[in-house]
């Protein structure tokens, strides 16, 4: 939190959401740990919210889809508590096989019963790890130091990474059947909920030990009961529960089930790490700098951000202008990158362009977080292409919009230390800055057109800042793009449209 406390721009309110009902609508940012449930209902009460920071890893307490729909960025602190969670898992493993909690209670009860607490060694045992990300791999390192062999199931794990960490990759069934101890380290998802349920528990070795320091529900708590009763499962260590707190849960009655109250990340070090990480990201966000640990935005490093920043702005302007020009339903946007921009992280630029395009069309907030989702909802598809055709510029972004019976193409370039320029507009080569109050006029290429337009605008007290003209061929289709000191109203548009040889007049705000 220190970075936030040091910022003069940030006011910090530290309360439970239920205690802040009256103020909820005022907050720009929300920082939470796992106990706060960020539901759609809560988000509805927070119309000002722009970012949610999870001071930890798991975001299963946050309705990320609902946040994305509202254009709210969700960030987490993905590695600040990894070591603490891995150490806690290992502490639970040792406690489980040596029955330390039970022995502790016994001695505290003034007993001295050494024969009741004969345990097992970890040395030489097969450890099954399900989910081999940050925590799973740290657990593996510690297991190897204890002389255990490590058998991993993770559908996304590469052979190279497994070899590097000295573990063997297996199918889920193989891990279930060979492991003496199984520890789960996946997120809680549709696929992992109940992963160790009746069917899979039946495949485990008789006398297996199980550990869940990841998320309640990965091991099905109800399914576990008969396996404990029969002695098939020798012991279970749980730091997390399907419902937290678990209340009077039947599992708590088993002597060989050892538990902690979701303490994996509860160390001084981990809390300092995650709080600092998420606070720094939050400040970056409000300073308009890239955030690197967003759940609902592609990751962007500072270096990459600095390179794409200019194109990000250009993309947004291309989308904005195209959307107003094509003020009809559209089905498809096609973006082509050429020259230096084609080598950059274009996903971000495309998202920005999409957000610019959608902004004049939707009432709700649309930004690079929810642009793809909003486009999908409205049946608009989009795609990226790459080309060598830069039209003589160092870089060129070309956007083609496909609507019913009409297609429109706009191309722009970014000139360092000069700015953005639109260099092609609806088939005509032109050169204007996509800024401010613009007026598009399509007309026949005849002498005197500029004067006539100037007269109408002058008569309505509208000052022209710049004027660019272009045409396909002499005497054919021609266009003017004017930049004005103030927006024009419908009366001015009608007066311009009445000039002979003017075919279309459109207001474009950029
Ligand atoms: N107890 C605690 O206090 C505590 C602390 C930190 C993290 N956690 C939890 O630990 C878990 C792991 O965290 P992490 O930082 O290692 O995450 P991670 O994203 O680095 O790793 C998760 C791994 O699970 C794998 N995975 C995903 N679906 C899978 C599936 N169906 N089968 C097998 N593997 C699958 C992924 O490929 C990934 O490698 C999360 O649930 C997190 O919320 C708990
Ligand atoms: O996912 C996590 O980071 C852990 O479950 C820790 O959660 P907590 O910080 O809310 O204890």
Keywords:
single chain, 510 residues, alpha/beta, Rossmann fold, 60s Ribosomal Protein L30, Chain: A, 7-stranded parallel sheet, 6-stranded mixed sheet, 16 helices, 20 strands, 32% helix, 24% strand, elongated, binds nicotinamide-adenine-dinucleotide, binds 3-phosphoglyceric acid
Quote the CATH topology of the largest domain: Rossmann fold
Low-confidence stretches: none
Identify every distinct bound molecule in the structure, by name, code or SMILES: nicotinamide-adenine-dinucleotide, 3-phosphoglyceric acid
Domains (count): 4
Q: Radius of gyration, Cα only, in angstroms?
A: 31 Å
Per CATH, the architecture of the largest domain is 3-Layer(aba) Sandwich
Quote the average pLDDT. Answer: 94
Give, in spatial order, the strands making up the sheet with the most strands: 6-5-4-7-8-9-10
Q: Count the DSSP helices.
A: 16
What structural class do you assign from the helix and strand content?
alpha/beta
The proportion of residues in beta strands is 15-25%
Helix content range of the residues, please? 25-40%
Q: Globular, elongated, flat, extended or rod-shaped: what is the shape?
A: elongated
N/C terminus separation: 38 Å
In the CATH scheme, the class of the largest domain would be Alpha Beta
CATH superfamily membership of the largest domain, which one? NAD(P)-binding Rossmann-like Domain
Largest sheet: 7 strands, parallel
Assembly state: single chain
Q: Strand tally, please?
A: 20
Function: Catalyzes the reversible oxidation of 3-phospho-D-glycerate to 3-phosphonooxypyruvate, the first step of the phosphorylated L-serine biosynthesis pathway. Also catalyzes the reversible oxidation of 2-hydroxyglutarate to 2-oxoglutarate.
Enzyme class: oxidoreductase
EC number: 1.1.1.95
Pfam family, one: PGDH_inter
């Amino acid at each position: 939190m220190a970075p936030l406390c040091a910022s003069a721009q940030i006011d910090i309110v530290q309360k439970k959401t239920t205690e802040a009902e009256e103020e909820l609508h005022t907050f720009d940012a929300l920082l939470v740990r796992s106990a706060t449930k960020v539901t759609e209902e809560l988000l509805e009460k927070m119309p000002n919210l722009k970012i949610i920071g999870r001071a930890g890893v798991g975001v299963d307490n946050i309705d990320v889809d609902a946040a994305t729909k509202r254009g709210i960025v969700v960030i987490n602190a993905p590695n600040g508590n990894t070591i603490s969670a891995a150490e806690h898992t290992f502490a639970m493993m040792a406690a489980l096989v040596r029955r330390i909690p039970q022995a502790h209670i016994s001695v505290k009860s003034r007993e001295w019963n050494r024969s009741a607490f004969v345990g097992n060694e970890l040395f030489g045992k097969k450890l099954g790890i399900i989910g081999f990300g940050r925590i799973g791999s740290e657990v593996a390192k510690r297991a190897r130091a204890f002389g255990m062999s490590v058998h991993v199931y993770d559908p996304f794990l590469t052979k190279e990474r497994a070899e590097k960490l000295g573990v063997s990759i297996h199918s889920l069934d193989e891990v279930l059947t060979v492991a003496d101890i199984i520890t789960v380290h996946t997120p809680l998802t549709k696929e992992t909920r109940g992963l160790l349920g009746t069917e899979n528990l039946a495949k485990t070795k008789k006398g297996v030990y199980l550990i869940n320091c990841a998320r309640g529900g990965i091991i099905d708590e109800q399914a576990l009961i008969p396996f404990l009763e029969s002695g098939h499962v020798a012991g279970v260590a749980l730091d997390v529960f399907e419902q937290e707190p678990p209340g009077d849960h039947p599992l708590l009655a088993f002597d060989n089930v050892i538990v902690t109250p979701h303490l994996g990340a509860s160390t001084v070090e981990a809390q300092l790490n995650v709080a600092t990480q998420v606070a720094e990201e939050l400040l970056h966000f409000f300073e308009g700098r890239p955030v690197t640990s967003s759940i609902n935005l592609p990751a962007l490093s500072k270096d990459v951000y600095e390179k794409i920043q200019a194109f990000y702005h250009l993309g947004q302007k291309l989308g904005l202008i195209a959307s107003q020009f094509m003020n009809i339903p559209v089905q498809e946007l096609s973006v082509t990158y050429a020259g230096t921009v084609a080598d950059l992280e274009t996903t971000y630029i495309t998202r920005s362009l999409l957000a610019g395009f959608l902004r004049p069309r939707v009432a709700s907030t649309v930004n690079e977080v929810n642009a793809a989702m909003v486009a999908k909802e409205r049946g608009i598809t989009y795609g990226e292409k790459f080309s060598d055709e830069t039209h003589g510029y160092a870089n060129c972004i070309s956007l083609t919009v496909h609507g019913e019976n009409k297609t429109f193409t706009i191309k722009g370039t970014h000139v360092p230390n000069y700015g953005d320029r639109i260099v092609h507009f609806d088939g005509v080569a032109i050169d204007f800055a996509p800024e401010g109050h613009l007026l598009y006029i399509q007309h026949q290429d005849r002498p005197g057109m500029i004067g006539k337009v100037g007269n109408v605008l002058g008569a309505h007290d509208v000052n022209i800042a710049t004027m660019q003209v272009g045409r396909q061929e002499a005497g054919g289709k021609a266009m003017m793009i004017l930049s004005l000191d103030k927006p024009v109203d419908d009366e001015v548009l009608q007066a311009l449209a009445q000039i002979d040889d003017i075919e279309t007049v459109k207001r474009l705000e950029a």
